[in-house]
## 1
Amino acid sequence: MKLILSIILFLFCCTVGTAQSKTLQELKDSNHVQLGFYFTPSTLRMLNLQKDTAYDDMIKGVEKLSFLIMRPETFSVDTYFATVDKLMSKENYEEYIIWDGNGDELQVFGKPNSKEMIGLAKYQDQMYIFDLKGTIDLMKIPDIYEKASTQDSTSLNGFNIIYDMIKDDERDRKNRERWRREREERDRKRDSIDAAIKVDSSSIINN
Amino acid sequence: MKKIIIFMFLGMFAFNVQAQSNAINKHFSKFQRDTSFTKVTVTSRMFSLFTEIDAEDEDEEEILAAMAKLKGIKALVKNNSANSKNLYFDAVETIDKDGGYEELMTVEDAGENVQFMIRDDGDKISELLMIIGGNENFMVMTLYGEIDLNSIAKLSRVLNIKGMEAFQALDMNSKKK
């Protein structure tokens, strides 16, 4: 839950954008995206169930925020680094923040005088991409972070909804994956039984 | 999870790799491939964003001005480490050998050692280095650019970020001066 909040807040550490990155647009259009959240100023305000004025002030300048959860089956670590490479070499994005710890990664990119910030994160086995367009009031972050760290989780109710959706999607994905494996196993068994019956019946016919 | 939030926020306070001394670069690169260490780098681009913010009061104005002058932050962290004191002394020795840093303040007690070092560029402080070792935690953090110790202390107090609270000691130091 706090991951989602921190990711969103972290993006807010950055600024804004008007032109969409080509690399990001290609990813959005691809089948790499498992689940995508697209926030506008009004939907971001809807997450503020506690009516926290610092939060509202912070997001005032945000035009759009995309938060993509990448499909682990297709978006591998290699794809992650290929995306980073593409952003930097082909679109001239520059690194703003690099965080690397315990095998997890977070990189935030931006362009001078641009109003778009892009973040790529690898947390455990899941990859995330964020795209922020607009401006954020950086000075409100400590206040919001302080509240998120000290208050009970009810202050994060809006973000809890998003977190629950992600967990539900993850559970559904795992279920789908389990069903697929079970179906393949059943098919394999059926095929081997069919093959055995064929061999058996042909030997009967031959005899 | 909390660690992620802390480091994400830590990322807000920055720096620029080229401006660092060889000793620091060497020390950071030594642990580059060690996944038990957390490495954080914030570049000057990130700090340039603070120049676009309008301050609401004098304190905020001072903090924003201090942040805008930073060129970067780099941090190397290891938590729950049994040899954090060894890492601390190893880092202090490496930096000492460089000879380009001046010791600003050292606090040593049974639980934790903290050392602040500075590098100056004429009459301005161009790099502030903090090494912490103890209580199973080790951290080297370097801020570079144009450093105002009073503002850095104020910044760490206002932002209340784990790991940066040690910078508050600098405020007392400057008062003594």
## 2
Amino acid sequence: MTTSDAGHPAHPAAPGAWCDRCGEPAGTGDHPACRASRELEPPRYCAHCRRRMKVQVLPVGWSAVCVAHGEIRG
Amino acid sequence: MPEILDQARTQVLGDGVGLDEAGVLAVLNLPDEHLPAALQLAHEVRMRWCGPEVEVEGIVSLKTGGCPEDCHFCSQSGLFASPVRSVWLDIPSLVEAAKQTAATGATEFCIVAAVRGPDARLMKQMREGVAAIRAEVDIQVAASLGMLSQEQVDELVDMGVHRYNHNLETCRSYFPNVVTTHSWEERWETLRMVRESGMEVCCGGILGLGETVEQRAEFAAQLAELDPHEVPLNFLNPRPGTPLGDRPVVEGKDALRAIAAFRLAMPRTILRYAGGREITLGDLGTRDGLLGGINAVIVGNYLTTLGRPATDDLKLLDDLKMPVKALSATL
């Protein structure tokens, strides 16, 4: 997993931020369903600001863009 | 040996005539102890009437999300509180995706858009994208753009699109429970036009939408009546925010029973593993399906979710001594 936006953590979300799958606070509960799903799903929410990201899934890899925090790739 | 499997051995394996709806239902209702025999017979049918080759395909979403239709399983409908946002893929990225797909040994690359049917902007994007792919990548191009007009069918043929996917999704009797913004018959009409155009028809659906076993058999029989070149078989991967987001996934053995039954209904079709197999079947079940009637796979990622790495699937095919169909064999 990589990021093209140096300084911002890539998927999965950093502790204390938002869950990048369900958009709820990452520190509330342990998000077992999100953790289980992550292997087969790209992130949908920005872990920094909870905005829904524009996600493009490609045959190999994916990219997700937050208008405020830039692009991450996996 | 259950009577239905004896009948299928003579009728399907011997004569190449698929089971009817009642026969499919009998297979779907086989107890677990007879599932290995059903899968073995379905494999023999596939080997006899299709051969050992496996057709490998990659898919990509040209236009994601924001769809006006209400297909209850789909995270790309703009009518549900799904986290999927609308996004378009540019032509250079589309060509790169085709190159990535071809590098796996795939012969098929299907361009998909989440729309009711294509508008002028999408058709222009398709024309430019297909031309760019054909100029740079040695791969067959398929498309899935929803419901078409006759003019759009003709235009896709003119572009060089050789196969068109339009899933009926489920049987006619259950369809209104899954989609209310258009009808099963409207989908059938697009499929009729595609067939008459000379493009190959790709039509399948999703199991686990809440249909009964009887309705699964009805669906197999309706697909057999359509006689598509390819049937992609999906298993519901419940998507957050959709009306079917809380449905349970299909049990692995039920999925395998369906694979065997659909193969016995359609002995000559390309029966493709599509979405959902990772969560429904896992690695072991994926192998069982390939030894139970499946003869095509989508490799890599799907439209909004991720798949197994293509290398894992290709290694599995190698282990099973199932050669990947060559491009020359598809022309």
